[in-house]
Amino acid sequence: MHIKNEGKRTYSQAQADKAKGMLSGAADIIILSEIPFVCEMKAPSGGRFQKGQLEFLQRAQNSGCFVCLAFGCLPALEAFNQWEQVCK
Asked: Which end of the chain has fewer CB atoms at under 10 Å, N or C?
């Protein structure tokens, strides 16, 4: 599932997204399964957190999701491979 949470939006676009159920802070990658995979991607140089992101990850972890914070594509792939092992 791809979360529509990147980029800048006008106030009216943000209001329309919120009315459709967009959740502030949702992770970049969410794969639904028995143990969901939730991954927040950041730039390898160290991206900044947006409002609600840490709280979203904490709620997901508390709900039993496999949660990762990946600084780049390779760490995200490593986390995905670990998640696959957990799900076996």
From this structure: C
Q: Residue 23 in contact with residue 56, Cβ under 8 Å? A: yes
In a domain, 4, yes or no: no
* Residue 58: Cβ within 10 Å count: 11
Q: Give yes or no for a contact between 46 and 71, defined as CB atoms under 8 angstroms apart.
A: yes
Using CA atoms, how far apart are residues 33 and 60, in angstroms rounded to an integer?
13
Which is it for the CA torsion 3, 79, 35, 51, positive or negative?
negative
Q: Which amino acid is at 82?
A: Q
pLDDT one-digit tens code per residue, 38-84 = 999 999 987 888 888 999 999 999 999 999 999 999 999 999 999 99
Give the tokens for residue 61: 């972890």
Q: Is residue 6 part of a domain?
A: no
> Can you give the pTM of this predicted structure?
0.78
Rounded to whole angstroms, the Cα distance separating 77 from 62 reads: 22
